[in-house]
Amino acid sequence: MAQLRELKKQQTRRSITHAATALFMERGFEATTIAEVAEVAGVSKMTVTNYFPRKEDLFFDMHEEVVTGPARAVAARRVGESALDAVRRDYLAAVERHDPLLGWTQPGFTRLIDDSPVLRARLRELFDHQEQALSVVIAAGAGEEPDAFVPRHAAAQLGTVLRLLFTEAQRRVRRGACEEEVFAALDATAREAFGRLEPSLAGYAVRTSQVEVEVEVGHGDEDGDGVGDEDS
């Protein structure tokens, strides 16, 4: 029974995001209302807001992966790997599989972000949360307090590279680069950018054993997970 309920929640979530994406592409983000998304998805307005408390997250529907991905990579790093090694390896793997989350690389998505101050503000928030999540995990791995300067500084350096790579992907999309060109450029740029962090981060937060202090990687943000939605 619980499995069926979870499956239905996933289907409802997909229906909502597909409806929202189609409407955003057709009408623009600002001109689309939650009520219109609900109507097209065949659910109530309350259900939409239960899954996505903020309209922006209908657009950034994979926001939790953006926020927690690098921190999870650090938490799962191999023995002998530093935080830098883990984030770099995770990013380059995402480039290899052409992960669209590295820059919302479809031209239509880039255009919607450019046209919406709300979406641009939300994107800045997501990167702030990403950096905060990184800081917590790096601090734990280095045996330091979560609010200590050094792990926050390390997270800020890594976070800055990730932000700049995202904007670089969008810049190339705006200029008409195809998917292959965008990801080839990201691969080269990421290798250079992360390489420039070697002097300060190569030996920091290196995992020395299989056993390390475990830290729950949260998303640093509200989670619209459909709890209690009336159409379930």
Automatic annotation (TrEMBL):
Protein name per the record: Transcriptional regulator, TetR family
UniProt-recorded Gene Ontology molecular function terms: DNA-binding transcription factor activity; transcription cis-regulatory region binding
Pfam family, one: TetR_N
Coiled coil ranges: none
Domain of life (superkingdom): Bacteria
Keywords: DNA-binding, Transcription, Transcription regulation
SUPFAM superfamilies (alphabetical): Homeodomain-like
Family matches, as InterPro entries: Homeodomain-like_sf (IPR009057), HTH-type_TetR-like_transc_reg (IPR050109), HTH_TetR (IPR001647)
DNA-binding region, residues: 33-52
Entry keyword annotation includes Transmembrane helix: no
Residue ranges occupied by any HTH tetR-type domain in the UniProt entry: 10-70
